[in-house]
Automatic annotation (TrEMBL):
Residues 5-198 form the Ketoreductase domain. InterPro entries: KR_dom (IPR057326), NAD(P)-bd_dom_sf (IPR036291), Peroxisomal_Beta-Oxidation (IPR051687), Sc_DH/Rdtase_CS (IPR020904), SDR_fam (IPR002347). It comes from the Bacteria. Gene3D superfamilies: NAD(P)-binding Rossmann-like Domain. Signal peptide: none annotated. This is 3-hydroxyacyl-CoA dehydrogenase. Belongs to the short-chain dehydrogenases/reductases (SDR) family.
Length: 301
């Protein structure tokens, strides 16, 4: 499905990114394997993971080039795209998968913990998409796949930085889709459920949390790759501005904010009539204070 295509997968030195990079290569794409080789919190760095996955692809008979630039830096993102263009002659798709975690309850979260996560996830997605957009516009084609999260789409404890970044990525994806549809550029999101280094940091403090972790362990990173490959391919030419969730063998199309219910008053509103009339009428349709695990309660199939 990707014969002749050139794809960049960020954060592809392991986990979900690695499986996506390998799947892209198996479908004929030349792949730029980007990974800075840092810790889960984004510290340190090594060329090893990117090189190892690039070597795996070559061993399979595919084409790959490693890259260790950081997506959080605009110049770094441009170098990642240039690696694709200089090595393989073009760029057709970007998978914005790179990410870090610095979890903390909101009232304990530091400015550094907030900034670091937004820089990699949200700024990283912007930097990569913006660097690719120049080439996409010139060639009148291109695909972007952003890895969002149900932590942002629904909610989670102790992840204000991560949740804000991931929900921001879905809005960024929609804006790119609107602005660049005239250049045949598509932008979609995937919220993955899969066991990975990032998920392994989930704290286990009771039996309920332990059961949830065991459930996630059943969902392997390779389950995410087929949808990512499809969205990067020409077969997805009519799929744009959508948000999907992959959970083991399940694929969900996620809702996007739309009006749920309205209330009208000819005389206009006062604080008192809002309290007495509007809120009681709307309350039955309030969105509950759910976490991701509250919505996805059933066992993966």
């Amino acid at each position: 499905m990707l014969e002749g295509k050139v794809v960049v997968v960020t954060g592809s030195g392991g986990g979900i990114g690695r499986e996506i990079a390998l799947a892209m290569a198996r479908q004929g794409a030349a792949v730029v394997v980007n990974d800075i080789g840092a810790s889960l919190s984004g510290e340190g760095g090594s060329a090893g993971p990117a090189q190892q996955v690039a070597d795996e692809i070559r061993a399979l008979g595919g084409k790959a080039a490693p890259n260790t630039d950081s997506v959080s830096d605009a110049a770094g993102a441009e170098r990642i795209i240039e690696t694709a263009v200089q090595t393989f002659g073009r760029i057709d798709a970007v998978v914005n998968n790179a990410g870090i975690l610095r979890d903390a309850l909101f009232h304990k979260m530091s400015a550094d913990e907030w900034d670091a996560v937004l820089k990699v996830h949200l700024y990283g997605a912007y930097n990569m998409s913006r660097a690719a957009a120049v080439h996409f516009r010139e060639q009148n084609s291109g695909a972007l796949v952003h890895m969002t999260s149900t932590s942002g789409l629904i909610g989670n404890l102790g992840q204000a930085n991560y949740s804000a970044a991931k929900l921001g990525m879905t809005a960024l994806s929609k804006s790119i889709a609107l602005d660049m549809q005239k250049f045949n550029v598509r932008s979609n999101c995937i919220a993955p459920f899969a066991w990975s280094r990032m998920i392994s940091s989930i704290p286990v403090k009771n039996e309920e949390q332990a059961a949830r972790v065991e459930k996630i362990k059943q969902m392997t990173p390779d389950k995410i790759a087929p949808l990512a490959v499809y969205l990067a391919s020409d077969a997805a030419a009519d799929v744009n501005a959508q948000v999907f969730t992959v959970r083991n063998n399940e694929i969900f199309l996620m809702s996007q904010p739309r009006p749920l219910r309205s209330i009208h008053r000819d005389q206009g509103w006062t604080p008192q009539t809002v309290a007495e009339h509007a809120m009681p009428a709307l309350k039955a349709s309030f969105v509950p204070l759910d976490r991701s695990a509250d919505v996805f309660q059933w066992d993966p199939v």
